[in-house]
Design brief:
The complex is a heterotrimer of chains A (337), B (250) and C (532). Chain A is built from six helices and twelve strands. Helices cover 31% and strands 19% of the residues of chain A. Chain A is elongated. With 532 residues, chain C is an all-alpha fold. Chain C is 67% helix and 0% strand. Chain C is built from 16 helices and no strands. The C terminus of chain C is likely disordered. The chains are: A alpha+beta (337), B mainly alpha (250), C mainly alpha (532).
């Protein structure tokens, strides 16, 4: 349509159409009421213009009926907006089960993308179309925000925690990726592309990747080198809780409450272990804050996640849904830029 | 331009003295007595002035509640995030000093109330000044204790930052606790110091015989401020010193 | 004839004045200076954005420009503007008093404002701040290497100016009303300022303690908001927006009060739905404290908190809508005169309607995800703050200028510049809605080429808008020297302020008024109620 003067970006995700529909409704309501008020004012200003210097207006004080009318009708309209917007939001907020997970780390001033099979990208994100993708995102320094206008999705990327966003791309193409939270000098340079590809092309792209370890494999190595296994003993009671089948379960805490062992919980347990001590254990675990990078945290979290049936995402092994992946396979290592 | 005043727009209400919608031909009646020397001229009478001053102080105290409120919110959030750490750190504070300070402040509010009462009943200046000085002595004692406590923290590396050392089980929580401890008690201490300054001024005025039953508003509103600072401490003491006190090993 | 302007000519009689009218003028001069400073930063931003590449300024300088533009315009222009100039001048007169409740505190508030302003100017001149006016942590506490402390302290100090102004207004309205002036006979301008004052006293202390915590974290490495030190960066956002959202109502409510007065005066008709407008002002102030979370929809908070804040954000729009309808209904069967204040009022109503409705886009959860932190937001708030608040301020200045100065300005030039402002404003900010929905993020120094056309339109509009703001400076100044003298009531209006001379005497009233009915009751002796 208006390719030289577009009014909205391409709709390239399942969500985009839903968001645009709400948008068009609000545009229509805005246009209607703006034109109504402007029109009434213009009309009254002309019709009731002062015709002599000592003319005054009619003494009308108000009308309860009118007040109710223009309270109730706007209230009804905004409730429709609220409900519709909330529905779209909940769809945007809840990734479907089985979504493909990709880790993202934002840092001043670049995006580092880590696919579960080991592919790494800088300022680019390759995804297949027709498949829900969930991004698990952390920051190395300040708050950033991962924004793909064509997909209509955005989530802040906040240091000290993980935030998620999900989408399902529908149309192959290259789309803008922007950092949308001011983060310092090169904030407007922290941009890149999201490349959506048909599934077969995506598999091909994955296979053509570099020879790095998948995060799970790297995490396993870290787990040994950082001596986590001395307290978190496989399958047996050690000084620390058992990590097998931990991911996704609900944990009893020493303070009496509970917590769901998701990625955020795992990350927090590494950098601030005293915050949620598990019931029956002592607060002995040292903190690794400052001793591991965000990427290493991703690797550790991915590894612990892989120790659980619910969280199993493929590392080096091939799994039908992911297609043939490569860990240590042959192809020329290419650094994706 | 145009003047659409009296000539062009002859409403019945436009007539000198020009006070439309109003009915003020007679000057405002006032009782024939000399103005109180302390009556400020934009007020009609002392009653209005007193009411305005007191309301002004109450509004100001509301702003102070919101000011401290931000810190209390941060305390709430972080204590909820790490309850064990906060308890461990709180147990490390010296409850005796905290209790002493609490009693000192409560008594100082009592002496302050007596100071207001003295002014209100036209007590001799010496008596008024006496109560005010008593309040100031107690306030200074409070600050003295805080100096002792702060010095102790500095000595034992309990000031958050690069030199913070914590031998307990919850170092992260303890450091956050002490950040809030210093912010909250520090802000409170600043308010105490300002309070002492106010008391000095009030004391001097009282010594000059400026307060009696007809005019004691400054003492009253200063009293309100002092009581407020006291009440903030009443909240700070249990929240900072007494977390899990009953259960800790003492 | 002695009035407040010629009652003493020395510098001391101005700088040590207790007269609320002189203090209002002190504020007028200082906020105009800050407006020019803030406008200068805006022009640099807009010129840079003419081209997609960041070629005029380097990134760090650009980031400082938009930061300083925001800080100066929000804290040193918009928040004080109407209350400190028009409120200070008019509220005592409108309640029939000789001055505010605490004249010395009024003067102190001006000095505090100036001190805070000097701190901030110092921060700007000695290198600038580049955190954005929102100072998000941990960037502002850990990473920004610019003058965050000085700017934070400047804002901290200035906050007390706001608090003291609000305190003064509240006590004045409660305790200084003339005999017979009941609450429901008060002018709507006073209601608007009362509601604003509630926000000032309840909200400003929270930003004060928040910037203090940022300063403490920065200076003493106390870990409150920095995750590397164990803090929570989102806590800062909650504390910051707890004030800064109500702050936008501090900026708009007084303007709404001005519009209520102008619409009545220039329709020669009392307002339609007085109590609805009065209560709407209070409702906006109260509900406005409950919506801050809509700035955190993408920060990863629970979806249920998002639902609650979205719902309440929709509720806060309703009282504003009620006001717009009531103002429109006031013009119906009025005797409408299109003098410049009324032009500004009409501009306000139209642009505030658009601005307010675009706020609903942001309250809509699913939609906010896409437009948050884009130029859509920038356009929305400029429609409210510039198309709304500044037009209200200009309208008020034009309406009450004869009263304040005793002089008349050139109505022809005033009408002309109102038109320029309206055209320039829309050309500046409407394209930003489009750019924002297309995905252009805010605070971008350089941008992809497809956004250029909207940026060029916007900069062109800004240049026109600037002209529209400069012309009044000229004819207002000219009026002081060569303007016609104004009578007590040049507009044929109603209200206590129009019953006293222009300019008023220092003590406002020679005799204390006794009020028997509300303002804006127009009665013509020769006609029955009603027009031909």
């Amino acid at each position: 349509m208006f390719t030289n003067f577009p009014f909205f970006p391409q709709q390239a995700s399942v969500q985009a159409g839903q968001v645009d529909a709400v948008y068009f409704f609000l545009v229509a309501v805005t246009a209607f009421f703006s034109l109504l008020i402007a029109g009434l004012i213009a009309f009254f200003a002309v019709k009731y213009r002062r015709r002599s210097d000592d003319e005054i207006g009619v003494a009308i004080h108000g009308s309860l009926a009118l007040e109710l009318l223009w309270t109730v009708i706007p209230f009804g309209i905004v409730m429709v907006m609220f409900g519709w917007g909330a529905k779209v939001f909940f769809d945007l907020y809840r990734p479907p089960a089985g979504a493909m997970e990709i880790y993202v780390v934002g840092k001043q001033w670049m995006w580092k993308v880590q696919h579960m099979d080991g592919q790494r990208e800088i300022n680019e994100l390759h995804v297949p179309i027709g498949r829900p993708v969930k991004l698990v995102m952390g920051s190395e320094d300040v708050i950033h925000s991962f924004y793909i206008p064509a997909f209509r999705v955005k989530a802040d990327v906040i240091p000290g925690r993980y935030n998620n966003l999900w989408f399902e791309a529908t149309t192959p193409g290259r789309y803008h990726l922007f950092c949308a939270e001011y983060c310092g000098t090169k904030h407007s340079g922290m941009i890149g592309s999201v490349v959506a590809m048909p599934p077969d092309e995506f598999q091909a792209w994955l296979s053509g990747g570099p020879v790095s370890d998948s995060p799970v494999a790297a995490g396993e190595k870290l787990f040994q080198s950082l001596a986590c296994n001395t307290c978190h003993v496989q399958g047996a009671q050690g000084r620390g809780p058992v990590l097998n089948n931990l991911f996704g379960s609900t944990v009893q805490l020493a303070s009496g409450g509970t917590a769901v062992a998701d990625q955020a919980y795992l990350r927090e347990s590494i950098v601030n272990p005293q915050a949620k001590v598990v019931a029956g254990y002592q607060p002995l675990m040292p903190t690794f804050q400052g001793l591991v990078t965000e990427e290493q945290l991703i690797q550790l979290v991915a590894y612990v996640q892989s120790l659980s049936q619910q969280g199993a995402t493929p590392s080096g092994s091939s799994v039908p849904t992911m297609g043939p992946t490569t860990g240590a396979a042959s192809a020329q290592p290419e650094i994706k830029r | 331009m145009r003047d659409r005043g009296a000539e062009h727009f002859p409403g019945p209400l436009h007539q000198p003295p020009v006070v439309a919608n109003v009915d003020a031909i007679q000057p405002h009646e006032h009782v024939e007595h000399p103005h109180h020397p302390k009556l400020q001229h934009h007020f009609d009478d002392m009653a209005q002035q007193t009411e305005a001053s007191t309301l002004g102080m109450w509004v100001f105290l509301v702003t102070e509640v919101m000011f401290f409120g931000g810190l209390f919110l941060a305390y709430l959030v972080y204590r909820h995030a790490d309850p064990m750490g906060f308890q461990e750190a709180s147990n490390h504070l010296n409850v005796k000093w905290g209790a002493v300070n609490t009693i000192v402040l409560i008594v100082s509010s009592l002496t302050m109330a007596f100071a207001v009462r003295a002014a209100q009943t036209s007590a001799p200046p010496k008596v008024q000044v006496g109560w005010i000085v008593a309040t100031m002595i107690l306030g200074s004692a409070f600050l003295g204790v805080k100096v002792i406590e702060y010095a102790d923290k500095f000595e034992h590396n309990l000031v958050p930052g690069p030199n913070f050392v914590w031998e307990g089980k919850y170092p992260a929580g303890a450091e956050m606790f002490y950040s809030l401890y210093f912010c909250m008690t520090g802000l409170h201490a600043v308010h105490m110091i300002v309070g002492l300054g106010i008391m000095t001024v009030i004391g001097i005025m009282a010594g000059r015989g400026q307060f009696d039953e007809e005019y004691y508003t400054p003492v009253e509103v200063s009293g309100l401020y002092w009581h407020f600072v006291d009440i903030v401490w009443i909240f700070l003491f249990p929240l900072l010193y007494l977390i899990g006190y009953h259960y800790a090993n003492h | 004839m002695t009035n407040y302007l010629n009652n003493g000519h020395s510098l001391a009689s101005w700088l040590l004045t207790k007269d609320h009218k002189r203090i209002a003028l002190l504020y007028l001069v200082s906020i105009t200076l800050f407006f020019v400073v803030g406008g200068f930063f805006a022009m640099l931003v807009r010129f840079e954005l003419l081209t997609p590449a960041g070629d005029m300024l380097n990134s760090e300088t650009y980031n400082k420009m938009f930061t300083m533009h925001g800080v100066v315009m929000v804290f040193f222009f918009l928040i004080p503007s109407i209350p400190a100039v028009l409120g200070n001048f008019l509220i005592p007169i409108m309640v029939g008093a000789k001055d505010l409740a605490f004249p010395r505190i009024n003067l102190l508030s001006w000095y505090i404002y100036v001190l805070g302003g000097l701190f901030t100017l110092y921060a700007a001149l000695s290198g600038g701040v580049d955190t954005g006016w929102t100072f998000y942590t941990p960037y502002s506490t850990a990473a920004a290497n610019t003058h965050v402390m000085t700017a934070a302290l400047g804002i901290f100090i200035t906050g007390f100016s706001s608090i003291l102004t609000g305190l003064n207004f509240i006590v004045t309205v409660h305790r200084m009303r003339a005999p017979g002036l009941t609450w429901f006979r008060l002018p709507l301008f006073v209601w608007a300022h009362y509601a604003t004052s509630l926000i000032m006293i309840l909200g400003t202390p929270v930003i004060a303690i928040t910037v203090l915590m940022v300063a403490a974290e920065r200076a003493l490495h106390l870990g409150i908001f920095d995750p590397a030190l164990g803090g929570d960066p989102v806590l800062f956002q909650h504390l910051f927006w707890f004030y800064s959202h109500p702050a936008v109502y501090i900026m708009i409510l007084p303007a709404m009060g001005v519009i209520s007065e102008i619409v009545q005066a220039f329709s020669r008709k009392n307002i339609f739905g007085y109590s609805f407008i009065a209560f709407s002002s209070l409702a906006i102030a109260v509900i406005g404290f409950l919506v801050w979370g809509h700035h955190l929809f993408v920060a990863g908070q629970s979806a249920y908190s998002g639902l609650i804040f979205s719902f309440i954000s929709f509720l806060v729009a309703i009282p504003s809508a009620i006001k717009v309808f009531n103002w429109t209904a006031t013009i119906y069967k009025g005797s409408v005169s299109l003098d410049s204040p009324m032009l500004y009022a009409f501009g306000f109503i139209g642009l505030f309607t658009i601005g307010g409705l675009t706020g609903l886009f942001l309250a809509t959860l699913g939609l906010d995800i896409h437009v948050h932190d884009t130029y859509f937001v920038v356009a929305h708030f400029h429609y409210i703050m510039v198309g709304g608040a500044i037009m209200g301020y200009l309208g008020g200045l034009h309406y009450w200028w004869p009263k304040i100065t005793g002089k008349l300005y050139s109505e022809a030039w005033a009408k002309f510049s109102a038109l320029i402002v309206f055209v320039g404003f829309n050309l500046t900010f409407f394209p930003q809605f489009v750019a924002g929905y297309l995905g252009m993020p805010r605070r971008y120094h350089a941008y992809p080429p497809e956004f250029q056309v909207y940026n060029v339109l916007s900069t062109a509009g800004a240049s026109i808008l600037a002209v529209g703001y400069i012309i009044p400076l000229i004819y207002f100044a000219y009026s002081l020297f060569a303007g016609e003298k104004a009578a007590n009531d040049p507009w044929g209006s109603r209200g206590l302020e129009w019953e006293i001379p222009s300019p008023p005497p220092t003590e406002n009233f020679t005799v204390s008024p006794v009020v028997t009915e509300g303002t804006h009751q127009y009665v013509h002796p020769k006609q029955e109620v009603g027009l031909a």
